[in-house]
Structure formats: C-alpha cells, structure tokens
Amino acid sequence: VPTMLHHFWSLAVEEQFVIIWSLLVFFSSNKRMVYVCVLSFVLSIALRVLAAGHLNGPVEWLMPARLDALAMGAWVALFVRRSGKDNRLSNWSMLICLVLGAIVCATQLIAIHGSRTLSHALNVLVIPVYALAFGMLILHVVTHPTQLSFLRGKVVTYMVRRSYALYLFHHPLPILLMRAIPF
C-alpha cells in the first residue's frame, strides 16, 4: 500500500549523516577523513550484502547501509580540495562515469529479466556503482565546468532550485490524484 510519506526515509538518512559527518569532520584531519570515506563506502556495501539474506525488511533504508553514496560525495569534495581541478582522475572522470553507467544499465536489465533473488542481489550491489558513477560525474562537472555548460542553463537551474520541493511532492501528488479521480 503506497503511503504519501514513504519516500521520507531518505531525508532521515541525510539528516543523520549531516549530524554524524559534521562531528567527524570537525574532529578529524582531511587525510583521516579520506580513510573514513573509503571505510564507510566498503562497510556500507558489506552491511547490505550481509543483511540481505538475514534480515526481513528494508535494510537499505538505514543510514549505515546508505553511507556508500554519501561517503562518495564527501570523498569527491575532499579530493577536489586536496588535488585541485587539474589532476589525472578528473581528466578520466567522464569516461569512468560512462563505463559505470553502462554497468548500471546492464545490471538493471539483468535484474528485470532475472529471478527475484538475482534482482535483489543485483540491486544491493548496484547502489555503490551508482554512487561511483555520480561521484565521477560530479568530479567532472566541478573540475571541467565549461564542458557541461548545459547544466548551467535556465531549465536545469530552475529545476535545481526547486528540487527539494519536487522531491517532497513527487510521491504524494500522484497518490492524491488517484484518490481524487474516481475510476
């Protein structure tokens, strides 16, 4: 049964991350935070893999199970801060992003046409690939701002400025419309 607030779990994950990560950043050096990012990324994947066969319920909704994506974003920020905009990884970031995107597409096609167990396993493992792909995309956008200038266009800017509200209402509105319109 769909609920109108079903998607708010991700906001709770983000709030928990901001509180905990802020404390870690405050009390740690940049070098130590790089290690924290990598460790968080790996432990998040391990938690999802271990919990997938043993827990009933959506372990993916818990903050520790979503740390891979959040840690990837933090790592990109640290990387750009330490390395600047001219470095070897940022020069390859778009190609890496495209390769990872192809892997995501392939695994999603396999998941759609595979068994339920295979589908769940691939979804558990594809989350970090999404995180890596988007991390490389963000790295590329930050280090090569003129190459993807369409991202600074009026339509994209308009959507970005309203993205939080769009996220809040993208799920409740269809539910409300389905309830309001008699079939």
Q: How would you spell out the order of helices and strands?
A: HHHHHHHH
- The secondary structure category is mainly alpha
Count of extended strands:
0
> What is the typical, i.e. mean, pLDDT?
85
- How large, in whole angstroms, is the Cα Rg? 19 Å
Summarize the amount of helix as a percent range: over 70%
What about the largest sheet? none
The general outline is globular
Helical segment tally?
Answer: 8
Outline the low-pLDDT stretches.
none
Beta-strand share of residues? under 5%
Amino- and carboxy-terminal Cα gap: 18 Å
Report on this model:
With 183 residues, this protein is an all-alpha fold. Helices cover 75% and strands 0% of the residues. It is built from eight helices and no strands. The chain has helices spanning 9-27, 30-52, 67-83, 88-113, 116-143, 154-161, 163-169, 172-180. α2 runs antiparallel to α3 (67-83) and α2 packs antiparallel against α5 (116-143). The longest helix is centred in the C-terminal third of the chain and has 28 residues, at 116-143. The chain starts with 8 loop residues before the first helix and ends with a helix. The model has no long low-confidence stretch (mean pLDDT 85).
Topology overview:
Elements: H1 9-27, H2 30-52, H3 67-83, H4 88-113, H5 116-143, H6 154-161, H7 163-169, H8 172-180
Helix pairs in contact: 2-3, 2-5, 3-5, 4-5
From the structure above, extract its key features.
183 residues, mainly alpha
